[in-house]
Amino acid sequence: MKIKATVFGLLIVAIVSSVTLALPRFALRTGAKCSDCHINPAGGEMRDVRGFNMSRKMSLVSPHEDFEMTNKLGPNIMFGFDFRGQFLAAKTSKGTKSDFLKMEGSVYGNVDIAENIRVTSRYDFVWGIWEAFATAYVLPGGGYIKGGSFVPNYGIKIDDHTAYTRGGDLGVITSVGNKKQGLIFDPRYTMSGGEVGYNIAEVFSVTASVGNSRSPQIFIADPSYFISISFLPQIGESIHLMLGASGANFKDSQRDANFNAVMQNVYMYGGFAGFSIGDFSLLGEIDFAKNYAGKDSLSTALMLEASYRIVHGVEAVVRFDRFDPVTKISKDEFSRVIIGFEFFPYSFIEVRPQFRVQTEHPTAKNNAFVLQMHFFY
Question: Which domain does 41 fall in, by range?
């Protein structure tokens, strides 16, 4: 792999390395759904009252109970935020370079305009993107209808978008020609459209979305379709399982052999699973994308994450990512191993030291140490 600006590439990866979503392993350990702690019924981003209270109590140091804290501005209005920054040290062929970076600055708002209707918004002033959608819980059996601008539900919403099952490296670190560097879910992607979802018996859920992309650099022709199904059974009191599958269909603008723009019909599908027992959890996802890297091509993305809660407020995390842009071409795939910890030293403060080991063909010196700081509410 030829890298003209390795350090710059690592900085870009660091910037996009965490758009705030739910931590799926937390939900898995408790047997809950991500939507049990978040305003979005598909999970992620702004926390509701339960998620706020859980976040307050997950730190190493117990919060002061006599200090009143709430994310409610009134009986039907809530707010929140996620601010992230990062120190990066990258070892390259020219030595070690370091920098401090801003990553995310999202502010949230939610208004319950009726007993079963709420309006939610997010603006990220680092990326300059926004979401705004209304959710109406008006379908029989606890179902909902959502409309507006939002991120469609697909796979495991891991909070690190450099995972190849999400957005990948944005084509900088592991750039090889014009090949893809991960799936479509980079931090800039949102969709304007609608979503329908059902939660059945607290263990089965299904969502279906259709709409127009607000990321023209990825999609040109619309509509795009997404569907996700998950099953969350429990064995006894300590073992929780997660099984699911997702699918998508969209149009992607690509270049032919003569560098002419052509529209390609892309099919994406995959499965995900996880289990937790006590303080240990394991999550995995594999995805396939037909015509994603070119006509008649097949791409694969894989993510495996193991985590262990050492003590309350401290987690050890190891993750393996792999992406193969074109399966019929050998030695074009790349992968990484991430080893790190997650500390919650006090309420609404998170610290993540990580070491990232990158593997590709040909080998390049682009390993990095990352120290993330996250303030949320």
Answer: 6-376
